[in-house]
Write a structure and sequence with these properties.
This protein has 142 residues and is mostly helical. It contains 8 helices and no strands. The protein is globular and about 40 Å long. Helix content is 57%, strand content 0%.
Length: 142
């Protein structure tokens, strides 16, 4: 359902915008986000995606990857596997405007999230809020 993403390219390459190096006194979060933007998408792990998405970086490319990971993990979770709460939290806490550009992807995530069991209380609250969030129709413009 998601659009294919070129995993050999970085967020920086896909955006066509190189950020300057962070200042020496930047926080470790800022330094890490700058570094992660330069890695090919295919090298990013779930926790890297959670960090970037949580900072609203590269959403057009990272949300499809995150939803894919979450969808695939949902099947494993149903069979007793572990589920990545950090990635799920980062994705479901993006605001309605962020999802407005990706209604089909948001619906895919809603289908996935609705079937998850045994979520931690803090994540379940955010998942429930996401599930209740109205989505813009695909043909509708802002």
């Amino acid at each position: 359902m998601s659009t294919p993403v070129d995993r050999s390219r970085s967020v920086e390459q896909l955006e066509g915008q190189r950020w300057p190096d962070p200042p020496e006194d930047a926080t470790s979060m800022v330094k890490n986000v700058h570094e992660l933007r330069r890695l090919p998408l295919g090298e990013l792990q779930a926790h890297d995606l959670a960090r970037l998405i949580g900072q609203n970086v590269g959403l057009p490319w990272l949300l499809p990857l995150a939803v894919e990971i979450l969808r695939d993990a949902a099947a494993a979770q149903a069979a007793g596997g572990w589920y990545d709460d950090d990635l799920l939290y980062a994705v479901v806490t993006r605001d309605a405007d962020a999802w407005g550009d990706f209604p089909a992807l948001a619906r895919e995530l809603k289908e996935t999230a609705a079937g998850l069991k045994d979520l931690s209380r803090y994540v379940k609250t955010e998942v429930d809020a996401f599930l209740a969030m109205p989505l813009r129709d695909e043909g509708h413009t802002r």
